Amino acid sequence: MPRVPLSHIAHGRSGDKGSHANVAVIARTDAGFAWLRDNLTAEAVAAYFAPLGPSRMERYEAANVRALNFVLYDVLAGGASRSLRTDTQGKTLAVALLRMEIDWEESAPLPPPSVDRMAKA
C-alpha cells in the first residue's frame, strides 16, 4: 500500500486559544473522511505532536463539512504573548500534521491542490 502525506486526502487550518491550539483537518472526499474517522484518532495526533508536550487532546467531528477538529491543550507554552516558541499561535500545526505519512490506496490519485482550486474554496 503506498504511503502518502495526509495532505493527499485533506487540507487543514490551525490557530490558538491562549496556550491551547486547534487543528482542523478537512477531507477532500467522502472516502478521505471515512479514512480520517477511522484512523486519525486523538491518540495518533497526540503521539505525532508529543514533542510539543500536549497535556490533553480532544477530537471533535464535523461530518457536515467532512472535518475533524483537534484541541491540543498546553502546546503553545503560554500562548502568543508569553511563549518563546517560534510559532506562538499554532498557525503551522495544521501544515505539520498534513505532512504525516499515511497508508492510502485508491484507483485514481487525487490531483494535487492548485492555487485556483484553493481560491474557490
Automatic annotation (TrEMBL):
What Pfam families does the annotation carry?
A: AtuA_ferredoxin (PF23544)
Tell me the domain of life.
Answer: Bacteria
- Annotated AtuA-like ferredoxin-fold domain residues: 4-102
Question: What's the name of the protein?
Answer: AtuA-like ferredoxin-fold domain-containing protein
The beginning of the lineage is:
Bacteria, Pseudomonadati, Planctomycetota, Planctomycetia, Gemmatales
